[in-house]
Amino acid sequence: MDYKKLLDYAIEEMKKAGGDKAQATLTVSEKHELNTESKTVKLMRSTDEIHLSLKFIKENRSASTTINKATEKDIDEAILKLVDLSKSAPMDEANDISDFAEFQAFKHGVLEPDMDAVYAALETLNHELKTTFEKVSGDAVLSYDRSHKYLMNSNNLYLEEAKGSYNFMMMFAAKDGDKITSFNYTGASILDLRQKLTEVGLLGDLMHQTIKELEAQPFKGKFVGDVIITPNCLDEFLNYINSSALSDGALITGSSKLKDKIGEKIASPNFTWHSNPLCEDLAHGYRVTGDGFIAEDLTIVENGVLKSFLLSQYGANKTGKERSKNYGGAYIVEPGEQSLEDLIGNVEKGILLSRFSGGRPGPDGGFAGVAKNSFYIENGKIQYPLSDTMISGNLFELIENIKGISNKRVNYGSSILPWIHSTGTTISGQ
Amino acid sequence: MIKQDLSKYVSQLEKYSELRVQENRSFTMAYMNGNLVRNDKSATGGVSARVFKDGKWGFASQAEISEETINKVIESATKNATFLASKAEVSQAPFESDKVEESHDYSTNQRRWTQDEVTEYLKSVDDYISSTYPDLVSRTVVLSCLEMEKNTITSDGTKSYWLWPRTVFYVGMNTQNEGVPCELGEVFGGRGHFEEHLTTVDDVKDKIDQLYADLMKKNEGVDAIAGLHDVILDADLAGILAHEAFGHTVEADLVRNGSIAGDYLNKQVASPLVSLIDFAHSYNDELLPVPVHVDDEGVVCKDAVIIENGILKQFMHNRDSAFEFNHENTGNARAWEYKDEPLIRMRNTAILPGESSLEEMIASIEDGYYFKKTSNGQADTTGEFMFGVAEGYEIKNGKLGKAIKNTTISGRAFEVLSSVTMVSNEMKWSAAGMCGKKQPIPVGMGGPAIKCKINVGGK
């Protein structure tokens, strides 16, 4: 099918329907996925998908729709729906589409799958689960995902992005007699299946940790101390900071604590945080943003100073602030100089936090939840795995109080993250 | 297109296979401080087939629904199953079940509103809040509608058609106290199209006024005191406890992977006052938020009695796990979109009501808390859980006291349910739930209020 011609049709028809501005994004994707159950490959799933998103703006009234059909008849029906939706929408000058840019066709990642390698990788993992990790149970999913995005708008913009990667996810727990552990999970987008899956997203290390967690003990007492946040857990905290203070919602409503802090110190000087969707090391990077701009790398925090928000075009128009070069994900935190052992060695009393199970913090940044798959540290040494232990603190204080960052990082395909040592968190047990 | 006769394809389906044509339709309008930040109508549909061969499954889907693509997905799913079966070390006979035919359409019989009418309604709610309560820092009004339409046949000849609409209408308010933000929201709606839930702004004014009054109390609220307390969990929290903290541990796929419930079948896991059921479609002849009659594996749905008078009686199954455990299959396999395989999911999970009144329960506590609304929840296969409490009150000398600020509650489901000493006689249901487990799926949750001991985060 000639998708460019189809998008030409969609844009022209939206203009004919009275649209002052029109944008259409078509994504054609396929997935080939293998799932394991009871340490064997159980399900093979193949899906072909197509998604067409249309944005229609008339007299500053905006409406959008997504359908998973791509014929001229489907487009005609979708446009009728858009016209109806937009009629009653309020006028809002912040509604817009992306600016003109010269045509570019981006290609990145693995564009031809090796399904034999996918099957072999899972069988190797199943073999290791049956031998090295007998006490661990869990279901794994390994897929090859390929997509081709076509984006066009009434500013004569036309972009294409083709990308592909292998995507792995496993959820697991350990059981030994009547002892059981909390579940844990990890995953990553990868470009090369020659590495074993136990080396992806720290899976092997985490499964060894999970076996140790069979001896988990509840922490007794309460103290304010140190926390070493593992890379698996750090991505979640960065996303919390984004939604609480850096993205559209927080800045449009004015609830962001960082709304007036560009150029000011908000974190420890050793903390530098990028959003680099173009990074070649990321299997799951992107070249075109969700609102239709060519993505660029940006630095959110440089040596502790806030450099950029993660605002979309609408958020920027609404707040009068600058549109960000992208709007998030692809997080890369610069490494520090210490080994993980050194970071642990510097902790007088604290925890190694592998997973945080808690609610999304509000605008004030306060967080509270259960420290899962975590270990108690005292006098510079890991003492024992923890159960029934709560952790609470504040996101903004957490990054201000960073004491050290590891020199080793983990590449999850959608982020590259180190271990971070901070302080000032409350740890409480029974 | 979805509601077509698929019988002609039965002869092409190897035993055992399923063929499903499905479309999910969503409609969302979101106002933030009077700005329409989302105005979207979307639909995702297609066809999928799943084929079972020698203990392995093959699945394939296509977005287009036509004779050609239906034949193609059957062929691809069979090819995938054959590939895995060729590597299987043991063979397994195909599943068999009785042929049934069910059709359930929960569409409204009322005249459907025009787009202008819906917009006007939302604007009138937003205008009411902004004009009545100009001191708010921000306000949010969101209408989020979902329609799932499924048409399934199996190689056993079972036919099932299901059209289920849901309306979630959310009003959120934010204020602040000396620069510290404070927020509270309320969810309205339930099963059915929005015409069955929304009428005029006058009908929600009282609820909005109450929400504002509760927000003001919370804004002047005190910190909860950390520790183990006597508390009353209202239906909202008792429902999420039943679903998240206990329900997931008795899903057979999680039992297989080492959940705590695996070793407790037919043992005491809760107070004798507690009976917990995952209802298929109705309770006391009343239709529940997510009524499922035939699951996505073509199995007739029955209530899963999980806890009966404190004894763990049953796990929830799909065809595979029921065969593996040699248990009854209560039809818990559901898929989110056409392109998804069915997974073991809950439907309408609740603790059965008891005999106490809420007033009696509050009066029985000298120093504790009454928790009304949850903000979010996380649970573990160990039964360990942590939920945010968005609205709660002190109980002092048997009477409600000051509101409390956001706090958390945590514990282990088995221990908390074992500590239950009173269960209210009132049953409330929520249809707004969306459960995540590889795929999202809408669920119903509910129950009475329960009195128990629980660990409160606080300060």
Features:
heterodimer, A: 430 residues, alpha+beta, PmbA/TldD fold, 2 domains, globular, B: 459 residues, 6-stranded mixed beta sheet, 8 helices, 20% helix, 41% strand
Short overview:
The complex is a heterodimer of chains A (430) and B (459). Chain A has 430 residues and is of the alpha+beta class.
Number of strands of chain A: 22
Kindly state the percentage of residues in helix of chain B.
10-25%
Q: What shape does the CA trace of chain A take?
A: globular
Percent of residues in β-strands of chain B? 35-45%
Output the structural class of chain A. alpha+beta
CATH architecture of the largest domain in chain A: 2-Layer Sandwich
How many domains of chain A, as an integer? 2
Strand fraction of chain A equals 35-45%
The number of helical elements of chain A comes to: 9
Largest interface: A-B, 72 and 76 residues
Count of all domains of chain B: 2
What number is the mean pLDDT of chain B?
94
Number of helices of chain B: 8
* Biggest sheet descriptor of chain A: 14 strands, mixed
Give the helix level of chain A as a range of percent. Answer: 10-25%
**Radius of gyration computed on alpha carbons of chain A:** 24 Å
The N- to C-terminal Cα distance of chain B equals 57 Å
- Helix/strand-derived category of chain B reads alpha+beta
What characteristic shape of chain B results from the CA principal axes? globular
The H-level CATH homologous superfamily of the largest domain in chain A, spelled out, is PmbA/TldD superfamily
Give the termini distance of chain A in whole angstroms.
Answer: 63 Å
